[in-house]
Design goal:
Layout (H helix, E strand, L loop, with lengths): L1 E3 L9 E2 L2 E6 L16 E3 L5 E7 L2 E6 H11 L2 E3 L23 E4 L4 E8 L23 E7 L3 E6 L5 E6 L5 E6 L6 E6 L3 E6 L5 E7 L5 E6 L5 E6 L3 E6 L4 E5 L7 E6 L6 E5 L3 E6 L4 E7 L7 H4 L7 E6 L5 E6 L3 E6 L5 E6 L3 E6 L5 E6 L4 E5 L7 H10 L4 H5 L5 H7 L4
Parallel strand pairs: 1-24, 2-28, 3-7
Antiparallel strand pairs: 3-31, 4-5, 5-6, 6-8, 9-10, 10-11, 11-12, 13-14, 14-15, 15-16, 17-18, 18-19, 19-20, 21-22, 22-23, 23-24, 25-26, 26-27, 27-28, 29-30, 30-31
Length: 421
């Protein structure tokens, strides 16, 4: 395992270029609690960007229009509270396919967001398909919102119409993730210590409850082929689940504090987890090995101190779509961009009170949400991937580590394909 502490000499580190800001409006006498932006999300096709402005409001903006506004009007853009507010039960079919800015009142504090898109050939697992209330077409784009009261609301992104209200969790819905295969299978992670699997093509039927966490579940993420789910939470927990059988594959051991975020690489060969122990680990999810460690405190705290309070808690981690870079966000007011084969951050940016981050669909921009409901955007490290890396990703998309190890190729090539060099 490679352990990568941060370098002391900041002259070697490049500062990321700020793209723009979306600042949440602050009303007079506005309470500071409840304004947190816990999740930012980009639509799978790159058409929309969504975030929680705090309290119970979610804002949806056309992403291309947002970028254009940054270029025309500068980086700062205070979101306008007088923008179009759509009634939750009304829709405008004539404007369905034209991206519009929406403000959605979710009825309670929003803790999580996720976009989901439909693929018609991916049928529901329910046999009684003729009784479905909703017919999801190829152009369907949904937004799921997880609320403080344990409910999950499903919205039509194009119209702002409320489609489904999923009720089963008994505590805060802390995270949501859709299966990337277009099946509209949704997984929710909650403080009630469970993960729940929902089939939106079956009118939101709850298919399965995944139990195993002994404490709050903070985050969950699908592998790119939708066959595996990672879930993380309090008490150092990192779980991997088989999503065909809904069984636990293994529990990963290594962190020394609560694990709060996770994300798979685009080829599914790597898994990144972020923890309050000041570390980001890169795992091989197929065998549970830790391949890399990115430290946010130097020297790294010993296990007995890593479990305590410090100003380097890592809040979020996200894999870029190039498979070479990850972004991490920590309590030391820094956003770091790492290369998976470098021992120091290749770019950094300043951010106070950050909570979450996500790469845009094309990987060119990183968005980060903060305690006050605002969002900040930076240009990401740009590098043309090598042909070797592109070939490695193509192979790893279809071959797990066990099959790679059986290939009749030189050992150095095996190490490269296994992300060990």
């Amino acid at each position: 395992m490679a352990s990568f502490p941060p370098r002391v000499n900041e002259k070697e580190i490049v500062r990321s270029r700020t793209i723009g800001e979306l600042l949440a409006p602050a009303a007079p006498f506005d309470k500071k609690c409840g304004r947190e932006n816990w999740t930012v999300a980009f639509a799978p096709d790159g058409s929309y960007f969504a975030w929680s402005q705090g309290h119970r409001t979610v804002k949806l903006v056309p992403w291309s229009q947002c970028l254009q506004n940054f270029l025309l009007h500068g980086t700062k853009n205070v979101t306008n509270s007088s923008s179009l507010r759509l009634p939750r039960q009304n829709s405008d079919g004539g404007q369905k396919n034209k991206p519009r800015e929406h403000i959605i009142d979710c009825g309670d504090i929003v803790w999580s967001l996720a976009f989901g898109s439909s693929v018609p050939e991916k049928q529901s697992r329910c046999v009684n398909i003729e009784w479905h209330r909703f017919r999801f077409g190829q152009d369907q784009l949904l937004l799921a919102t997880g609320l403080n009261n344990g409910r999950i609301k499903i919205w039509d992104v194009y119209t702002g119409k409320l489609l489904l209200n999923l009720v089963d969790h008994t505590e805060v819905v802390r995270d949501l993730t859709f299966a990337p295969d277009g099946s509209l299978i949704l997984v929710s992670a909650s403080r009630d210590k469970t993960l729940r699997v929902w089939d939106l093509k079956d009118d939101g039927n709850m298919m399965k409850v995944l139990r195993g966490h002994q404490n709050w579940v903070y985050s969950c993420a699908f592998s790119p082929d939708s066959s595996m789910l990672c879930s993380v939470g309090a008490s150092k927990a990192v779980f991997l689940w088989n999503m065909d059988k809904y069984t636990m594959i293994r529990k990963l051991e290594g962190h020394h504090h609560d694990v709060v975020a996770c994300d798979f690489s685009p080829d599914g060969a790597l898994l990144a987890t972020a923890s309050y122990d000041t570390r980001v680990y890169i795992w091989d999810p197929h065998n549970g090995d830790i391949l890399m460690e990115f430290g946010h405190l130097f020297p790294p705290p010993t296990p007995i101190f890593a479990g305590g309070a410090n100003d380097r808690w890592v809040r979020s981690v996200s894999f870029s779509h190039d498979g070479l870079h990850i972004a991490s966000l920590a309590d030391d007011k820094m956003v770091r961009f790492w290369r998976i084969d470098e021992d120091y951050p290749v770019q950094v940016a300043s951010l106070s009170n950050g909570l979450c981050c996500a790469f845009s669909t094309d990987g060119s921009v990183l968005a980060a949400g903060t305690h006050d409901g605002s969002v900040y955007f930076w240009a990401t490290p740009r590098q043309v991937p090598s042909l070797q890396h592109l070939c490695r990703m193509s192979i790893r998309r279809v071959m797990p580590t066990q099959e790679v190890q059986e290939l009749p190729v030189p050992s150095k090539l095996l190490e490269f394909l296994s992300y060990r060099i």
